[in-house]
Amino acid sequence: MRLAPRTLFGRVSLFLLLAVVVAQGGSVADFLISDHAAHMGIVRSQVFEQTEATLRLLRATPPALRAGVADQLSLFTLCYSLDAAPRAHPGGEEDEEAGHLQERLRNLLAPYAAGPPRLELRDQADHGCDRYRAVSGLPFSGRPDHHHRFSGLLLSVPLEDGRWLNADGRIVIPSYWEMAPLLPVLGMVLAVLLTAFFILARETGTLRRLAEAAERLGRGDGGTRLEESGPAEVVSLIRAFNTMQDRITRFMQDRTRLLAAISHDLRTPLTSLRLKAELIEDEEVAAQITATAEEMEAIVRSTLDFAGADALNEAPRVMDLASVVESLVDDMAELDLPVIFQPSPRIAVSCRPVALRRAVRNLLENALRYGGCARVCCRREPGQAVIEIADDGPGIPPALLDEVVKPFVRLEASRNAATGGIGLGLAIARTVLLAHGGDLRLENRPEGGLTARLILPLPAA
Fold this sequence. Notes:
Layout: H1 8-59, H2 66-72, E1 78-83, H3 96-109, E2 118-122, E3 149-158, E4 164-173, H4 182-218, H5 232-278, H6 283-307, H7 309-313, E5 317-320, H8 321-333, E6 339-341, E7 348-351, H9 353-371, E8 374-381, E9 384-390, H10 417-420, H11 425-435, E10 439-444, E11 450-457
Parallel strand pairs: 6-8
Antiparallel strand pairs: 1-4, 2-3, 3-4, 5-7, 8-9, 9-11, 10-11
Helix pairs in contact: 1-4, 4-5, 5-6, 6-11, 9-11
Catalytic activity: ATP + protein L-histidine = ADP + protein N-phospho-L-histidine
Organism: mine drainage metagenome
Transmembrane segments: 182-201
């Protein structure tokens, strides 16, 4: 299964989206890490300063009242208690961060403590002090939501009366993914992507117009030059396409004029040859000369048809395909030819009706010549309309199915027009279909005979 988009717009958009997500994700991660470190530093400083203020107050309080004062100063995220032993485990100097905090705490509390304080850092802590007191205006006075995580630190400071002031601090770790500051980041990412998508859609639109112009040129509808606008690389590509289109158009025009001139120059002596044949007294010789002249005229007409001059000059029209084919079949049926049109749905196609009728007639005549009969139907397939012509003939060797549609290729090698034409019928039909943006495909039927599929594109909805 292909995961990458098929279009240039889709692939570049996906690459751009991934690049922006990775870049912004890295920026957000860096912000969260830095913000977490700053948040922990600020809260720890507040714990130290609050403990310093508590020590100053306890120093001025009679020893008998100190336990009650410590209890009254306890908040949800900072609990004080006076105990006979320290609760913080000594050590932590091997941790650079803990050692730095220990040194800072020792310098800050030295005037009030009876000895060196102890510090213990904890990665996890419970949801706060049971002796909760919310005091407006003081740090740590709010009760966080139940879904917040906690980190902790434990301070034990020795007092002059032999007891220890134990401070149990809970540090609230914010839920960063619910923070409002992420909204501006998401807004910026969305703005960048929308701007990039707009520019990308505009530039890929130029390439899409170039592809459509190339498709029209392949159908013989070229001649309209594209506007040379956009980035330098796209302008260079459009300029090269316009130059190529001009050269192809001039080549086609020169070829048409050349063939028209050859046709005109050949018809004059052929007409003269037929007139002279009428003056010949030997009727058999006269008939042979006349037949030769007529065969040469047929070759000239077929060559001009193959050149596609009419197919290129005729204006396309939207018509019902079944009606076009049925009218041709009716004309041939009136001549007592075994041609049958099977009921078909109405299918609107853009076509050059004269050229299309010529292509269908060539295939019908081919089916009658080699198969003795022809059955015709029209069907709609995804994105295309198909005319199917089936016969009961011997079919074509599989190795030659792609060869017989080439100019002057015949299965009968004698080159006798009476036994198989001059080898341009199928080539003319394929040329007409290619000029419509379609194709001609030949398939042998399992039960015998040949099916010719004339494929035409359906108009865009």
